[in-house]
Amino acid sequence: MPSKKPIIHCEALVVHCMDYRLQKFLHPWIMRRFGRDNFDIISLAGAVHDYEMVLKYVQLAVQIHSIKTVCLINHEDCRAYGHAGTYKRHKNDLQDVQQKIRILFPNLRVDTFFLHLDGDFEPIS
Ligand SMILES: [Zn+2]
Q1: For residue 37, how far is its CA from the centre of ligand 1 (angstroms)?
Q2: pTM above 0.90, yes or no
Q3: What separation in Å is there between the alpha carbon of 3 and the centre of ligand 1?
């Protein structure tokens, strides 16, 4: 008899930077926002800095976990950006990647945030 694997699903894919300074803010915030066992998460240096990599994981999370939301979080003083990492640049990159994901996956909700070093999550729209 052919066995069918049950469909598994979580709400969101969260993309944030690997930076150790932010983890203490990220994990509680993500848990509050999406709830336990309800998100995939990836840490990439510079978060959305590598768009191709982000897209690869969005595609995968849609495919294997039927996610509905992508949450992109860049942050202040990101060393992966170096001197190029101005507030304006982070905002532009977040909006650019948000738009690209929306075009490829029109059913996905894409939220963007700029995380300040004091733990404040600023929504970018
Ligand atoms: Zn960073």
Answers
A1: 25
A2: yes
A3: 44
Whichever domain contains 52, its CATH number is 3.40.1050.10
Distance 86 CA to ligand 1 centre (A): 12
- Encode pLDDT of 102-123 as tens digits: 999 999 999 999 999 999 999 9
pLDDT in tens, 27-68: 999 999 999 999 999 999 999 999 999 999 999 999 999 999
Cα–Cα nearest to 90, from 77, 71, 108:
77
Around ion ligand 1, which residues have CB less than 5 A away? 17, 19, 78, 80
**Could you tell me if 30 and 39 are in contact, meaning their C-beta atoms sit under 8 angstroms apart?**
yes
Judged by phi (left if over 0) then psi (alpha if -120 to 50, else beta), residue 58 lies in alpha
Cα(23) to centroid of ligand 1, in Å? 11
> Residue 24's domain spans which residues?
12-124
The domain total for the chain is 1
